[in-house]
What does this fold into?
Amino acid sequence: SSGVITARDDFSIDEDAGKLLARGHKFASSESKSDEDFCAELGLSQKKGWNISRARRRLSNVEDLEALIHPISYRPFDNRKIIFDESVVWTTARSTMDHMLRGENLCLVTARSEKSGTCSHFYVSDKLVETKCGERTTQSAVFPLYLYPDEQELDQTPRVNFDPKLYKKLKNLAKHPTHDTPTEVQVFDYIYGVLHCPAYRETYAEFLKIDFPRIPWPATPDEFWNVSAMGTALRKLHLMDPSTIGQTPYPFTTMEGAEGDNVVHKRSFADGKIWINKTQYFADAPEVSWTFYIGGYQPAQKWLKDRKGRALSFDDVKHYQRILKILSETDRIMKTIEMDLT
It folds into this structure.
């Protein structure tokens, strides 16, 4: 299905779970105020189709509001928290998203079409996904790797979300004297590697603008395992695995003799420096990290844009340095992915 559509991100989503919980309690406990006054106070738009009175009653009956708060992939490398409940979320996409909550999972985030012309609408998540996370110009489509049974079912074994016949064929094509047959995660990583293969993107660029990506069969077992290995590295990078990212040699620097308040103002790139204001910058930054596209976004630019006017904390600085490393490594790894597409 598509990703989660809140229709009110500023209320339903936040980086700070505590602030989100406080808003939820306020929403659930302000029955004495009219809907109009309440929406004005919280800056909420009373969109057509949203019965706010019913939503407030529904949330007021929830015993543990904190249990409704979950991590969500909001934008590439921008993970936040969400109040995941029909009372405050326009579309939960629950039939798909519940599988991301019931147990450990991975999901491919892509789209039926893309209008940016970048062929970059491919991402991965291990949590809930906001609908614009993996595709800026339309809506993301989310494909979980595992489907978890409902709680009332006797057999609680998760099911791999592959067509059985196609999965069997791919395992046979990939069977290798050294690697044997692939697991479902290795097949997932093959798909992810294919989607980041430059030759694939170039060959199918026009098709990728108008329909879901189609995945070619591997030409040989060696090709499968090589592409899968690259997909594994990309998946771990994009999930921001610390051991995969490693060192981030992009020091946050203040000009000599100047003062800095860490506040993001005008953002720019010049001579290996990413400036966040007139006196502070990230040094030794690769230009490819600044210009690289994922999901139709340039994450290194988008992340700073979304924090304009905010003072970056120590954790913010470390996070941004990781983004720069991830994007640089993604570019490097992509250039090593080769496929026979004839």
User: Anything to note?
Assistant: Residues 145 and 328 are 27 Å apart (CA to CA). The mean pLDDT is 94. The radius of gyration is 22 Å. The longest helix spans residues 314-334.
